[in-house]
Write a structure and sequence with these properties.
Elements: H1 3-7, H2 10-23, H3 27-49, H4 53-65, H5 84-94, H6 98-109, H7 113-137, H8 144-152, H9 165-175, H10 189-197, H11 205-218
Protein name: DUF937 domain-containing protein
InterPro entries: DUF937
Length: 221
């Protein structure tokens, strides 16, 4: 199991169709939003889990409630749109960055912030369900960081090496094209670093937009 399944695999395809149908938007735009937003969600969860033991435990408990059962009914979800609980998941993920995420995704897609908010609310429980299912299947006693790492690490198959495409992108974001070495000591590696840079307050909207394009582009969107 890895992030590619959430974006371009079976689950991703269903999520894209669900976003497009529920929000009445073009499937091509739904694909772009999914490819950019899902890595941001996982990077945000990783960041939150490292804030404190309490935050980490809170995420672990939330994942226990989201055990993957959502995938048994994914085609029939959100008949009346996402619920307030789904919006709360988004706010828990992104915190004070919620509006920043919405505004930047809206600017890149031409969709309204409300439509983007709806897309995020659809994706959030799907991402949590996927991670919860992964947590159940983990045979090791590793923590949330190990689970997120195993999922996010899958995205690196789209780059030639950690110092390749991802390194070039991150070098551009972090230092105007300078070289970048991805940290890979069992943690989330290059894709997480790229997604995490979106939340760097030192990056303006232009760089944030570049990061979103890069994330989406990694999955052919």
């Amino acid at each position: 199991m890895n992030i590619t399944d959430l974006i371009t695999g079976g689950i991703g395809s269903k999520a894209i169709s669900l976003v497009a149908k529920t929000l009445n938007i073009d499937e091509s735009k739904a694909k772009w939003v999914v490819a950019a937003a899902v890595p941001l969600m996982i990077a945000a969860l990783n960041y939150n889990s490292k804030k404190s033991k309490e935050k980490e435990e809170g995420i672990n408990k939330a994942l226990e409630k989201h055990n993957g059962g959502i995938f048994d009914q994914i085609g029939n979800l959100f008949g009346n749109g996402p619920s307030e609980d789904d919006n709360k998941i988004v706010n828990h993920m992104f915190g004070s960055n919620t509006e920043v995420v919405k505004d930047n995704l809206a600017a890149k897609t031409g969709l309204s912030a409300d439509k983007i908010g709806g897309a995020l609310a659809i994706l959030a429980p799907i991402v949590m369900g996927y991670l919860g299912k992964q947590k159940q299947q983990e045979s090791s006693s590793g923590g949330i960081g190990d689970i997120l790492g195993s999922v996010l690490g899958g995205g690196q198959s789209n780059s030639s090496a950690e110092g390749g495409i991802l390194g070039s992108i991150l070098g551009s974001v972090l230092g105007g094209g300078g070289s970048y070495q991805s940290s890979s000591q069992g943690d989330l590696g290059g894709l997480a670093d790229l997604a995490g840079e979106f939340f760097n307050k030192g990056n303006d909207n232009s760089k944030k937009g570049f990061i979103l394009d890069s994330l989406a582009g990694m999955f052919g969107r």
